[in-house]
Amino acid sequence: MAGVSGCMKYSMFIFNFLFWIFFPFSFQELEIDSRLFAGVDMLIAVGSIIMVLGFLGCCGAIKESRCMLLLFFIGLLLILILQVTGGILGAVYRSQVQYYSAFSLMSSQSSYQCCGLLKGPADWGKNFNTPLGSNKICECDAENPSTDLCTSFEGRLIYKTQCISHPLVLISPSGGYVPTQAPSGGRHVDSEAFKGIRDIEK
């Protein structure tokens, strides 16, 4: 029993130590592309908490400290509860997030006089003809619309250019901010941000 106990103790120490050392590097890959994400501060906070928990797990396993191991267990339990709560809230409010994301996209399109991201009105799917508030999607509301600015599509006058050619920030259905810029800006984003709003119910 003593040998098994020692093996478990050192195994717990090694795994917690490795997790504590290598976990911060998982954020370095996301640093450039996720700098403007809404949830990045929360992820950093969670990462810091996990690092502290890993340290408690290491010390508690080596010193066989019941206090440290208890704190380690409580911390893991709290993280589990937060993850479950976040998943439930995300599922419950997903439709609301998608709906208000559509309004954000509408505002961006009106400001930059563009329509869609890569495929124009096709990015909106079946919701293209669904009014959002008092405005119609991609509606060209210029006083004297020219052929360079507007074009006819399904009997409506809409903006001609796609929004990928303009610098703007889109709010994706997942709640994060997706930075997009003209191709010369060095950033790239595909039409994934539009997928979640194609099937928004009125």
UniProtKB/TrEMBL annotation:
The chain crosses the membrane at residues 12-30, 42-62, 69-93. It is a multi-pass membrane protein. Pfam families: Tetraspanin (PF00335). One of its GO terms (cellular component) is plasma membrane. The keyword Transmembrane applies. Keywords: Membrane, Transmembrane, Transmembrane helix. It is found in: Membrane. Belongs to the tetraspanin (TM4SF) family. This is Tetraspanin 8.
